[in-house]
Amino acid sequence: MRIAVLAHVRQPIAPPFRGGMEAHSWHLAEGLRARGHDVVLFASGDSDPRFTLDAVIPRHQEATFPGQEHTGDPALVAHLDAGYAAACDRIAAGGFDVVHNNSLSRLPLARERTRRVPTVTSLHVPPYDALRWFVHDSVVPGHRLTVTSHGQLRAWFPDGAPPQASVLHNGIDPADWPYHDRGDGSAVWCGRITPYKGTHLAIQAARRAGIALTLFGSTEDGAYWESKVRPRLGGAIRYGGHLDGPSLAAEVGRASIFLFTPCWDEPFGLVAIEAMACGLPVASFDRGAAREVIGEAGAFAPPDDEAALADAIGRAFAIPRRTAHDRVRRHFTHDVWLDGCERFYAAAMQDGTPGAPQS
């Protein structure tokens, strides 16, 4: 198949990844290419040059509009709209069999676009007002919607999901996150260091539990880093930097416990399954899709409760490392995920013939 992968453009689609959406789009394009598909990645122009790349905007959003995500800045909205509108036009004229839409733009959801090219849209976020109506209006033949968890499906469609919407769990290649049969007694936390990821709560819970903790990730929210995270470093709490995939996997695999601390309704939690593949049980806030994804590999605490999370750390130590690894092998592998993507592409192509009228 000739496939257009349309990505979010807040950050480059290139390692080291700034977050799960960037990792998702990169692994999607790479995995489909490895399966013999003709893939064009529509992303920021500073994304990974190893792909056949068609630039939505010349440089990623944070390079030109730093810190403006979700602010409604008219200049940013106009910049993104112009980029996505032109990219959608190029996709429509490009002879693609299907487009996999990973953007957060409303434009690829429009019926006049999905009737021209069969579309699969993957929703990586909970519903929010700027996108909700457009998602609901886009439910037509030729357009399939996927979400990453059953909790996210209920959030987007509280009155019941339409047949075009389905759960497709994210997946990873376990070879990228090698299993370690024992840890060094420490904890690890990974992710984008921002308030809604709860980095400061992971630090406070680790101190309460008396366990060493290493943080990894990008420090894109400078004010949060300076006020809530950096002052709490020292002693057994350290920052290990923003590492490439192999280096991060090696560091994670050495630890004994992974801390997962979402302060929002996290739709999936890719970092958790990466750590689980390495063999780490998880101490987690029970929020969003955490329990659905982590399951028997985790010990849970009420949201934002650092004292309860410290207790969960102790309980997580009793969970065998093999339990965490085996759960990923059963449910969250790269191949299972890509198989699902290909099924949805075929369904979208069968549902809607480009050019046919739709309701």
Report on this model:
- The chain has 14 helices and 13 strands.
- The longest helix is centred in the N-terminal third of the chain and has 19 residues.
- The strands form 2 sheets. A 7-stranded parallel β-sheet has the order 3-2-1-4-5-6-7, with helices on both faces. Strands 10-9-8-11-12-13 form a 6-stranded parallel β-sheet, with helices on both faces.
- α5 links the parallel β5 and β6.
- It is 39% helix and 15% strand.
- It has 359 residues and is α/β, with parallel strands linked by helices.
- α7 crosses α12.
- It has 2 domains: 188 residues, Glycogen Phosphorylase B (Rossmann fold), CATH 3.40.50; 158 residues, 3-Layer(aba) Sandwich (Rossmann fold).
Overall morphology:
globular
What count of structural domains?
2
In CATH, the topology of the largest domain is named Rossmann fold
CATH superfamily of the largest domain: Glycogen Phosphorylase B
Distance between the termini: 27 Å
Rg (C-alpha, Å) = 20 Å
| Number of strand segments | 13
CATH architecture title of the largest domain = 3-Layer(aba) Sandwich
Main sheet record? 7 strands, parallel
Q: Give the helices and strands as they follow along the chain.
A: EHEEHHEHEHEHEEHEHEHEHEHEHHH
Q: What percent of the residues sit in helical stretches (DSSP H or I)?
A: 25-40%
User: For the largest beta sheet, what order do the strands appear in spatially?
Assistant: 3-2-1-4-5-6-7
Average pLDDT reading: 94
CATH class of the largest domain: Alpha Beta
Number of helices: 14
The portion of residues forming beta strands comes to 15-25%
User: SS-based structural class?
Assistant: alpha/beta
- Which segments are poorly predicted (pLDDT under 50) over 5 or more consecutive residues? 353-359
**Oligomerization category of the chains in this entry:** single chain
